[in-house]
Amino acid sequence: MKNVTVTMEDSVADWARMEAARRNTSVSRLVGELLAEKMRHDDAYERAMREALEFEPLPFTGPYGSREDIYAERLNRFR
């Protein structure tokens, strides 16, 4: 593990101390856990985005329908 120095506003440091005490851990460990969770979240998002972009588009044949054609069934219910 690496030791680092972090600079933060007093209000952030106060919150970190209270949150660390609530979790029964140190501020250092709390910050490390929060950063690790952020890293996992970002990695999961990037992975999901790559997977979504790899999907092949659905095949489409024929002309696009008009707005009236697309909504005809719904519109007929109210006529």
Strand content: under 5%
Residue-averaged pLDDT, rounded? 90
Largest sheet: none
CATH architecture classification = Orthogonal Bundle
Through-space gap between termini: 71 Å
Overall 3D shape: elongated
Structural class: mainly alpha
Instruction: Kindly identify the CATH topology.
Output: Arc Repressor Mutant
Total domain count: 1
Q: Please count the helical segments.
A: 3
Q: Which residue ranges are poorly predicted, with pLDDT under 50 across at least 5 consecutive positions? A: none
For the secondary structure, the number of strands is: 0
Q: What radius of gyration results from the CA coordinates?
A: 26 Å
Reading the helices and strands in chain order gives HHH
Determine and state the CATH class: Mainly Alpha
Helix content class: 55-70%
Describe the protein's architecture and organization.
The protein is mostly helical and 79 residues long. The chain has one domain: Arc Repressor Mutant (Orthogonal Bundle), CATH 1.10.1220. The chain is built from 3 helices and no strands. It has helices spanning 10-22, 27-54, 67-77. Helix 1 packs across helix 2. The longest helix is centred in the middle third of the chain and has 28 residues, at 27-54.
